[in-house]
Amino acid sequence: MSTSAGVTAPTAVAPDPDAARSGSRALFAVCAATLLVLVNYTAPVAVLPQTARSLGAGLTTQTWLINAITLGLAATLLVAGSLGDDFGRRRIFRAGLALLAVSTVGAAVAPDSGTFVAARVVQGAASAAILAAGLGLLGHAFRTHHGRSHATARWASMLGAGIAVGPLASAVLTALGSWRWLYLVLAVLSAVLAVFGGRLLAESRAERTARVDVAGVLTLGAGLALLLVAVTAGRTGWVRPAVLIPLVLGVLLVAAFVAVEARGRAPMLDLALFRRPDFRTATLGAFLTGLAALGPSTVLPTLVQRLIGVSALGAAGLAFLWAGASFVVSNQMRHLGARVAPTRQLALGFLLTAAGYLAMLGYADAHSWVRTVPGLLISGAGSGLLNAALARMAVTSVPADRVAMGSGANNTARYVGSALGVAASITAASSLLPAGQTGGFSAHGADAVLLLGAVVALLGTAATVGRRRVAAPVPAAG
User: What is the residue range of 255's domain?
Assistant: First the structure.
């Protein structure tokens, strides 16, 4: 049996108690690690002003305090997925957890912003190994349509849970003592999970000769890193050499990566996957999700602190509303996901994201955090739908021996979009300043962030609906 996208559906098999227990153990280990990754990812969001003051970071450097981990993620996700498929997903998963523990200690003890940013980049690479290999492990452990819908919905709900817990835990520990405390806690938990969590997992890898795509690793990693450097530096002007040089070099290296993958015998990214409609939709959807959902929502807690005077704990509470709604909706999709096409989930998720942003317009000008609450709940629900749909499509839109590659490609697109979204949101928020003001954020800039996110989300809805219409069969005449 095959799906409309040309992907072979998993064959129905009789229930196997041992397989069920193995799948449950894998789901627990992967979900726990994913939760740690997202808590760590969002740790600076609600305490950015306090972290920046402690490290002596200016406005441009503050962008890097948030975006450094995204740089590490985006540059290494495809690499991690390919290594997992070739050398063992459990091996890469556990190595990622060990590296996350070490790099998180580095972030906790960082004496200055440069050291902190470097540690966060390494955290991103470690997180890439966990996310790509983890979703690949779930794709291997769950072979049925219902099983994969259940497992990927659970995995997606951890994205929302981590985004909810991270800012809140960071704000609480900062109020009690220091923003550094959360990183120490996360380092210990990562080390424990690296030692004991790996025992819950069965090794899996592709049935082919393992080889490292060195040219692909170098061209993609360096190309994405330079592009993100250029976009982040572009906040203060796009025609400066510090922006143009990395931008041009990044484009050339990404083009070289495409050429390398097209000719390679064991490519890190099989370009033939883009012939699959579901893979194209999932990749574009992930990019637009990062750009529209993750970018503005990451900057929002800092804006409500700076423009309205909300405390770090209050800003974390607002982030909790958004991420909590995402968690609830993603978790419910384990029951409904098998009955709702993922492209429908994507379209509705983008639509709710746009509606939520539009509902928040004017909150900064009115000096009212209450006005953000309905919009946060609506856009959070949209994010939950997007996460569940993308996690499912990441493993079902590729062959069984490419599940980690599919995860790596999907998450690469998501976090490249997120990095661009954060940089664009900070640029928009610091524009439209009142006369005489030369730094910081403005109420009109806060609205510009919301409008930008809404427009991109509506483009995502249009792209997804347009894809479904093109793919729909044409009825016979008469």
Answer: 214-265
